[in-house]
Each structure stands twice: as structure tokens, then as C-alpha cells.
Amino acid sequence: MTSTIRIGLLGTDPDVRFGRKLVLSSQPKFEVVFDSVGSPEDLEAISQSLIDVLILDQRLLSDAGVTFYSSLRKLTGVKQVPPAILTASFAQPYLLLDALQEGIFDVVSVEQGAAGLVAAVSRTYSRANPHSLSTVWELICTQTTYRTVDLNFVRLVDELPQGLASSLKQLKAVWQSSDLATIENFDLDSLNKLVSRLPVLSSVELILAMNRSGLLDVE
Fewest 10 Å CB contacts: which of 9, 100, 147, 190? Predict the structure, then answer.
């Protein structure tokens, strides 16, 4: 990692982008190196830029921010895409779930202010999970999710060495306990070695991918 955090900033409102650029650039280790509206052409430009953290607004010129990031991942590859934050006008559980499922690290609402955005950039750069397992569990329990089995993902999970597979067994046991205290205390960092072996960017995305593929279901 570099000493300076290079930030890409995408949004359709130039005034909002300018204000965010001022806030971010005022931080000693932040530098905004890409600033645009989120057009289709930006996909290729971002893939060739040195960006440490990407900030996308909920709506971009070409599409929704989540959809844009999904397209970027397909272009660059999951492990090469810069980790991202989505910005929104207010907190929306459905949007948060959609974003996390696409590998976006966090959603920051306007109510969280400049300090919330700055903190989110620092967390995302360090790959620190802003959400607990209980947050993910409650999102899935309260929001409509659709089963999409990724056969390649399932194959890679099946091929994990026994030592790593044991971490998934522990996750599954905790998940199926339905005990909020147990779920809250689960250490997401215990899944970091799995994240490095699978096509996901974070332990939260790993959990959501497992859920979509039925790997957390009761047998």
C-alpha cells in the first residue's frame, strides 16, 4: 500500500463532486486522482488508473452505481478492482444489501456527513469490515434475496484445504444457531484467509456469496 490514498470520485452532480473533493483533499494522506460522471468510457479509464479507493454515487451517468461497479469488476477481475464505497442520499437497507453483494465495502449516506465519508475511505483502504456478521444476518432475514448458485464459486469452496474449510464450518454453525449474541461475536477476520483464496473482496461478500449459493442452508 502507498502512503497516499488515491481516490476515484464518480457522481453526476459537479457541485457535490467538488464539495467532496475539497473534503477529501483536505486530508493529509488523501489525493483525488480521478473525478468524473460515471460514463461508460470511465470503466476503461478507471481500469487503467492507479486508484486505491473508488467512491461512487448511487446514480451515475451510465447506470446505477452498483451496476457500474459490477461492470467494472467484470472488466478488471474481482481481485484487481479497487475497493469501493457507495454514497446515497439516505440509509436504505435494500441498497446496502445490493451493494454488499456486489463487493462494495460500505454505503455512506448524506446524514453521515464529511466525517463519515472520510472514515469510510480509511476503513475501505485498510480492508476493514464496517459491518458485523449480525448486520449481514439481519439484512438477509429482513430483505428479499434471490438464490443464484455460482457453480464455479461452489467448486472453489469444495476444493479448499481442510484447514480453511473448517472456518466455513464454524461460520455455518454460528449462522444457523440464530442466536444474535453468538452471531454478533463472530470474528469476520477469521475468514480473511478464505477471502484471499476465493473470488471475493471481503468476508462480508464471501458470506453473501455463500448464502446465494445455498452453502449456509440447513442440511
Answer: 147
* pLDDT confidence band for 2 (50 / 70 / 90): low
Q: Are 125 and 83 in contact (CB under 8 A)?
A: yes
- Please give the angle made by the CA atoms of 128, 125 and 114, to the nearest 5 degrees: 95
CATH number of 5-125: 3.40.50.2300
Specify burial of residue 196 (Cβ count, 10 A radius: 0-12, 13-18, 19+): exposed
Distance from C-alpha of 214 to C-alpha of 44, rounded to nearest angstrom: 34
Tens-digit pLDDT profile for residues 133-169: 999 999 998 886 677 888 999 999 999 998 888 999 9
Mean pLDDT within 203-207: 96
Strands of the chain (E only): list them: 5-10, 30-36, 53-57, 84-88, 106-109
Concatenated DSSP letters of 33-97 = EEEE---HHHHHHHHTS--SEEEEESB-SSSBHHHHHHHHHHHH-TTTSPPEEEEESS--HHHHH
Give the model's pLDDT for residue 1. 46
- Residues of 163-190 as b/e, b for ≥16 C-beta within 10 angstroms? ebeebbeebbebbeeeeeeebeebebee
- Residue ranges per structural domain of the chain: 5-125, 133-212
CA distance 46 to 43: 5
Question: Which residue type does 18 have?
Answer: F
Q: Do the beta carbons of residue 53 and residue 85 sit within 8 Å? A: yes
Q: How many residues does the chain have?
A: 219
